[in-house]
Amino acid sequence: MIRAAALLARGRRAAEALMVDACTIRRRTGETVGPGGVVTPTYTTVYSGRCRWQQPAAQAAQQDVGEDYLLMLRLEVQLPMSVTGVQTEDEIVCDSSVHDPDLVGRAFVVRDLAHKSHATARRIGVVERT
Prior knowledge:
Blueprint: H1 4-17, E1 21-33, E2 39-54, E3 60-65, E4 68-79, E5 91-96, E6 107-113, E7 122-129
Antiparallel strand pairs: 1-2, 1-5, 2-4, 3-4, 4-7, 5-6, 6-7
């Protein structure tokens, strides 16, 4: 009989084998003010490495903020289970994508965190503002 731990390890290896893209998760730590009063955010890196991008549902939500119209696109980022410490409001930037070059350079904000005992990947809900 296959023990749960061995089966879980096998599932995690299979999930990580599909993580062919790379991303960086960063957390805003403050800001600097440059010449002319230009404000530039400062960040610390939480994680940089392999990931997998998924769109759980092909839908977006309209948000009206003040006079601006924003289209909120929801995606899921799958990370190795060894990645810890991700928080809501962290930013995830796609560094490379093997199968969707249009993802590269796009930035997403962490909105949902999921935790469970027998997860094969860390699944994080993110949104992109367009």
